[in-house]
Write a structure and sequence with these properties.
The protein contains three helices and 13 strands. It is an alpha+beta fold and 202 residues long. The protein folds into two domains: 72 residues, Alpha-Beta Complex (Outer Surface Protein A, domain 3); 92 residues, Outer Surface Protein A, domain 3. The chain starts with 8 loop residues before the first strand and ends with a helix.
Length: 202
Amino acid sequence: MSRIGKLPIPVPDAVTMTVAGSQVTITGPKGQLEQMLPGGVAVERRDGALVVTRAADDRAHRARHGLSRTLVANMVEGVTKGYTKVLEIYGIGFRAVVDGQKIVLSIGYSHPVEVLLPQSIGASVETFTPTTVNNYLVAKLTLTGIEKWLVGQVAARIRDQRKPEPFKGKGIRYAGERVRRKSGKAAAVAGAAGTGGAGGGK
């Protein structure tokens, strides 16, 4: 048995499931999701949980088993709790504004950058006063939705508009992301000069 695929998926009372052939529909407080399962995999409700089974025990069916269980579990969590992704924007003069279903970014270019959001994705912005204490954090952008992959895809697309650079750390990064920093040319030259001065005094 697949170690992941064999695990039952707990389902709250508020969640309903319908199966039509290979298509599974999960409905909950936050919305409805549909998913086509790969061939040879089935899902059914037993004792308040969803159980995913497979038709055969070969390698391909075992792989599909685990994948299908993960997809269905993500659907259940999406329609009950939803998913959230937080992006942090660093840089003096940078800012983000939510305008309907688009985000307008001012991130150091000669023009604002607009990112259109899918209808199922919500967004909100919290702004900060940039200081050395918060490393010039100017805004936190929070994305929400019921589809895990879509929330992650939109967050990645926004981050790609201005990835964090390694010298001052300016740009857009995921909350909690560690940016590897490099010393600039001025620091390198000063360090070399200091080393040379110390050597010359000996």
